[in-house]
Structures are given as structure tokens and as C-alpha cells.
């Protein structure tokens, strides 16, 4: 198998959805579907056995749902790259999957191009949340957590500027242009920020920033 091929495991209780998704996203030398599951228990078994590069999992499944399966999955495979699939963008579902460590969240209504983009992005250890989820994230966190006023001496002024822009959905390129820095410098700052707070993703930075009063969504 070519090393550039991304090995994907799909979990969804609807056979038609799985087969359709497989047909649409599988491509030689880029994406290879190595397994399918129709419930969380089978997902867990196959993920441990096959160790896929990416796991696309529905949240609502019989026997064991996607959230419970993901919780057990991260215990067995802490480095697993999970993208959640859902027919809704309910606050509690988004929060639970993010807190568990999912690196992506897609609505089932996403088009093929976006699903592929999510797979490539998460494979490269970067988070991918569909636009409707990303736009809601700071508001969701703000409504679900208290916002203590704390000093932020653990972050430099530059790091706080970058955190603010991350929360406003700026890309690394956008942050670089705004602050007159190189993209590489911005990504270095972002890596250090994540290390300081133990975040696994951009969503983790946003969650931390809102929880600790570094960023407040006033819109």
C-alpha cells in the first residue's frame, strides 16, 4: 500500500449511508476504507484491531453510541484521530465529543469535498470543524461554563493576541497577516499555547480561552 494512502474506518448504523460514503470518498492512493461498523461495539473492536488513520463515526448508533464508543476508544488508543458525524449541531453533542478528544465534527449534510478536506486536515493532526459548528463554539462554551476572571501571566502579550484571533476564527495565515508575522511563527506560538494548557486542538484553545476569561464573545 502506498504510504500516502489514508486508512479510514467508518461507523454508522445505516448501511446505505456507509456504502454511499465509501463510494464517494474512497480514491486510489489517497483514501482507503479499511473497515465498517454499524454500532459502537463493533467500531471499538475494529478500531483496536485495524488501527486506522482516521475514524469517521456517527454519534447516534445502537448497542453502543458514538460518544460512549469514543470514550472507550481514547482509553485504548489515545492517539486516535476521530471525526464525529451527526445529523445535528446540538450543543451537548459538540461539547461531549470535543471534551473526549475528537479532532473533527461534521454534519451529515456536508458535501463530499468537505468530508475529504476534514479527513486530510485531521490526518495532518489539525482540527476540522464544519463552519456551523466553529461559529457556535465560543457561544456554546460561554453558556456552559462559568467565566472566572484570572490573570493570564502564563501567556505573553503576543500569545494572548493570537488566542483572541483564534477565537475569532482566523486561520494561521490570517493571523500572520494581521499581526505582521510569518505563518511559521504563528504556528510556533499556537503549538506553545496548546502545550501550556494541554489542549489537543484549536477547539481546546477556544474552550480554555472562554472558560478563563481570555476571550469573551460579545456578538
Describe what you observe in this structure.
This protein has 219 residues and is α/β, with parallel strands linked by helices. It contains ten helices and six strands. It has helices spanning 15-25, 40-50, 66-76, 91-100, 112-123, 131-144, 157-167, 172-179, 183-197, 202-211; strands spanning 6-11, 31-37, 54-58, 82-86, 104-107, 128-129. Strands 2-1-3-4-5-6 form a six-stranded parallel β-sheet, sandwiched between helices. Strand 4 (82-86), helix 4 (91-100) and strand 5 form a beta-alpha-beta unit. The radius of gyration is 18 Å and the shape is globular.
What is the gist of this entry?
By secondary structure, the chain is α/β, with parallel strands linked by helices.
What is the spatial order of strands in the main beta sheet?
A: 2-1-3-4-5-6
Mean pLDDT rating = 84
Q: In angstroms, what is the radius of gyration? A: 18 Å
Q: Between the first and last Cα atoms, what is the distance in angstroms?
A: 49 Å
Helix content: 40-55%
Q: What kind of sheet is the major sheet?
A: 6 strands, parallel
Unreliable stretches, pLDDT < 50, 5 or more residues? 146-150
Strand-and-helix sequence, N→C? EHEHEHEHEHEHHHHH
Beta-strand residue fraction: 5-15%
Question: Count of DSSP helices?
Answer: 10
Judged by helices, strands and strand pairing, the structural class is: alpha/beta
Shape: globular
How many individual β-strands? 6
Amino acid at each position: 500500500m502506498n504510504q500516502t494512502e489514508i486508512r479510514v474506518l467508518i461507523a454508522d448504523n445505516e448501511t446505505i449511508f456507509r456504502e454511499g460514503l465509501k463510494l464517494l470518498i474512497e480514491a486510489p492512493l489517497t483514501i482507503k476504507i479499511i473497515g465498517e461498523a454499524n454500532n459502537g461495539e463493533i467500531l471499538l473492536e475494529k478500531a483496536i484491531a485495524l488501527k486506522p488513520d482516521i475514524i469517521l463515526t456517527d454519534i447516534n448508533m445502537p448497542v453502543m453510541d458514538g460518544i460512549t464508543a469514543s470514550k472507550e476508544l481514547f482509553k485504548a488508543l489515545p492517539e486516535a484521530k476521530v471525526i464525529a458525524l451527526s445529523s445535528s449541531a446540538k450543543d451537548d453533542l459538540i461539547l461531549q465529543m470535543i471534551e473526549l478528544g475528537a479532532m473533527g465534527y461534521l454534519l451529515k449534510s456536508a458535501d463530499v469535498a468537505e468530508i475529504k478536506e476534514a479527513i486530510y486536515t485531521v490526518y495532518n493532526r489539525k482540527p476540522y470543524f464544519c463552519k456551523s459548528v466553529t461559529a457556535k463554539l465560543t457561544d456554546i462554551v460561554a453558556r456552559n461554563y462559568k467565566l472566572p476572571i484570572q490573570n493570564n501571566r502564563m501567556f505573553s502579550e503576543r500569545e494572548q493576541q493570537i488566542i483572541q484571533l483564534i477565537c475569532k476564527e482566523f486561520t494561521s495565515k490570517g493571523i500572520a497577516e494581521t499581526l505582521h508575522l510569518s505563518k511559521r511563527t504563528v504556528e510556533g506560538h499556537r503549538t506553545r499555547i496548546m502545550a501550556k494548557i494541554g489542549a489537543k486542538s484549536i477547539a481546546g484553545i477556544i474552550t480554555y480561552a472562554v472558560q478563563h476569561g481570555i476571550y469573551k464573545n460579545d456578538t
